[in-house]
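Lecture 7, part B: from sequences to assemblies.

Below are the input chains for today's worked example.
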Amino acid sequence: MSFVKLDDGHRPASTEVFLDTSIHCCFHKGETLRPRLNWLLALFPWKGSSTYSKVEYGNVILATAQYYLRKLRELKSVARLQEHISHVLPPQHREYRTWAFSLIPTLARTEKERTRRADASLRRLLKLGTQAVDARCDAPLADGTRCHWGKTGLQRKRNGEHVWKTPNCKACNKACNVDGFFAEHRESFQSIKCEIDALGADLLTDELKQFSRVIGEALADPSVLLDYDRGCKLLADAIIAVDGKDYRSFVTQNYKESRVLTKVLGQRCYYLPNNPEQGVSLLERDGAGAPESPGV
Amino acid sequence: MNWDEGTGGGVSFERRVGAQVPLDCESVSGDPCAPGIETPGGRSTGEGGRRFVGMPGSKPPVSSRRVPDRTVRRRRLYLKACLDELERVRNSGGDPVFKGNSLADVRNHLQALWVEVEGSPQSEAFEEMINVLQIAISVDSPEVITPRQVDAIWSVLAKMHDDPDLDDRAANDLTQELIKGGVDVFREIG
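Predicted structure of the full complex, as structure tokens:
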């Protein structure tokens, strides 16, 4: 298995592509990713995703937007906010070092206006919430899990402020169909577990080990997935991948996990690295049952 | 058959340029025939002292608007000017200079709207949308904006013109429409 960098003449083997959660987050990662992402997505007339991705999008993008907005109002200046993010934030919170507000200085003349614009942008992003996932895909999204939190996770306080709540789903209070979804696609999850268990130590990541363990538990009792922290959160990427298994192409930023998942599900795996020099890659596989060679 | 007959390729396109009307003398009522005069209704119409007459016990109708009518009219004025300029962009036939000039005018009108609405607690959603639209057309070169994006921006501006008193739900719908039209609305954050 190896990733091959694509050139401008690439022709995809399918008309549809499935967007992993990491790709929804890519839209907020600045100019290094955006042109490549737009080029890749323009190759596919149909773009799909999973409703479960909304939870992941909320946990990453909306939670970050909420933090930035709170800090911006506290510090009352976008320049001071950026300084805080760069110099004060401890390394364990590096996930917040996401946004640079790169365009704000060209639009605004004064720091007050820049701050006001940053506030307006963050507010809009938060208010739009998980509808951003719907807007970037063709309807309907795959909805095998009938994820409840994706629809209700964004809440409005009495003072009008929007907040993203981290999921706290419990098995005793069933609100979705993740257990039924697992039972329906039991063979797929079982194949994923077999594939992971057969991997060499060099290809095995902590997340893949976690997939294998949780799938093992869910094979015995699918209701363990109803508990967010001990179930579906730990299997999120695998659930999303299986929800999109009818798509023949899959695009992701998490190549370590996705190369295993797409191999089992018989999909072509497009990889969008952060480094712009690496362009966009397609996973090439050898052997029976693997996707055809790319036309590059 | 001449190939051009079937494809329309032989048709010569003429650049259609809409008449430029200075903002200060355009109708504020939206009616092209109406003069651009605003009057305090009470004095000019003699309706100031008129009281609501309805069924006993019924209350007078309450406007659902959160911003004054005068503000709505001013917003419509600028939005209409943006729509006219974008119509010129659509009809510019790809001329980059023409397109660039019209987009610069749209930017100026949106900036005027931003100055009016900035920090207004009753108009948060409208302020957010103006900011989003300014970001959408803030590009280094006018060629970068595609016809599909122009159409999406035009459509959103037209809806804002129809109802300039936006709420969050309407703003969400408009933001989605922009994203679906290929406009990168959160470009400035990344």
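Note for the exam: Strands of chain A lie at 2-5, 16-19, 46-48, 154-156, 162-164, 249-252, 268-271, 281-284. Keep this in mind when comparing with the next example.
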